[in-house]
Design goal:
The chain has about 220 residues and is of the alpha/beta class. The protein has helices at about 5-15, 20-30, 35-55, 60-80, 105-110, 150-155, 180-185, 200-210, and strands at about 95-100, 120-125, 135-140, 160-165, 190. It has a 5-stranded parallel sheet with strand order 2-1-3-4-5. Strand 4 (about 160-165), helix 7 and strand 5 (about 190) form a beta-alpha-beta unit.
Length: about 220
């Protein structure tokens, strides 16, 4: 399946789920056509203003604007060509993905050999292969077992790795305010709450490493 068809399919599914925010994120990360991107940003701005106005009790049009925005994005998707989107270049960084055992196949599909030359998926409790004990990024799927102990353990064992947390709320969001160690773990994390944004956050994290290097050690 082409990258364009993958993009269109994922955006259609986010729209059907009522998750326009993820659709915006995915399109913003993919579009290289300036006119299309400007069109998207205008739609996003109109929707955000309508939601804000409704939250202040100044209007009640947010639902209608949301529906209109969905239709407009669907029309845009029908017009997109391969030239409008950024081709996905293979990522060569070493990526370790930890997930619940029941989700391993899903993550393997998301991190296929076609797009990731050095990505390895294991379930929590499984031994980490020697080749992946010094990864650039560790992805933690927080939709199963308690992920915090695993993040703490690997923060100590893999001091040069950044983390990509996948879930609703990073477990260090509150504890970082009380603990310098937890704050350091939180600072080395990027966060994604939808699988539609995982790849975008990962690319941002890898670009960050190119500029700023490995995480700062906390003694």
């Amino acid at each position: 399946m082409s990258q364009l068809l993958i993009l269109v399919d994922r955006c259609r599914r986010t729209i059907s789920d009522g998750n326009l925010e993820s659709c915006f994120d995915f399109l913003e990360a993919s579009l290289v056509n300036r006119a299309r991107l400007d069109e998207l940003l205008i739609l996003k701005g109109n929707l955000n203003r309508a939601k804000h106005s409704q939250s202040l009790g100044l209007s009640n049009t947010a639902d209608q604007v949301s529906a209109n925005t969905s239709f407009a994005i669907l029309e845009m998707l029908n017009k997109l060509t391969e030239e409008d989107i950024n081709p996905i270049n293979p990522i060569n960084g070493r990526i370790l993905i930890l997930s619940p055992e029941s989700k391993v196949s899903d993550w393997k599909q998301m991190f296929s050999d076609q797009n990731f030359s050095h990505a390895y998926v294991i379930y929590y409790g499984q031994d980490i292969p020697l080749d992946y004990r010094r990864p650039e990024v560790v992805v933690f799927d927080d939709t199963g077992p308690n992920v915090r102990p695993h993040m703490v353990q690997l923060a100590g064992e893999m001091p040069d790795a950044h983390f990509l947390y996948f879930g609703d709320l990073n477990p260090f969001t509150e504890s970082r305010k009380r603990s310098p160690v937890d704050a350091a773990i939180f600072e080395r994390c990027a966060n994604a709450n939808s699988k539609f944004t995982v790849h975008a956050r990962l690319r941002e994290l890898l670009e960050f490493r190119k500029v700023y290097g490995v995480p700062t050690a906390i003694n």
